[in-house]
């Protein structure tokens, strides 16, 4: 009886690939993973869901990943009834809750409105940003002392608790720093980012300024 051909045996054996354990499968990021996006794309998607904004200036690598995979990321967000807005000129990406009168849309993104102090700080920042851009400046900055002095003029004149007012303003500033509308460059000095234009449109700024003027006119 002839021996099996060694060449045939070797090539036949080469035709079979040893199974890879599931946990070692490079397409899986964790046990049972059914996702199809690369890990970097998933991170961008999660960041968009976690934060209000993604800034090209602050996160250049994630911004590049977003632009390279925008359609995929938009598709995942649309599955959640969330719209992606990419502002290339300002280098800003953010999400919006889809709302429809014709379709019963479950609300994923809850509105987190700004309180009085935060709104007043926003109005001042937006005004300064608009004024500086109007003069040809590429950036706008404010000092905390100037900010407090201006915003406090809109507080109740009968409220003489100055420390409380200053604390509210500083808490407002901290929230806006966290959200990326302000960037602290040195102690008490902040750069206003283009996000302020997204959060507070020109129309809304005009409306709020008119309301503030009316409040001052009726004040005793």
From TrEMBL:
Name of the molecule in the record: DUF4194 domain-containing protein
Taxonomic superkingdom: Bacteria
Organism per entry: Actinomadura craniellae
Alphabetical list of Pfam families matching this protein: DUF4194 (PF13835)
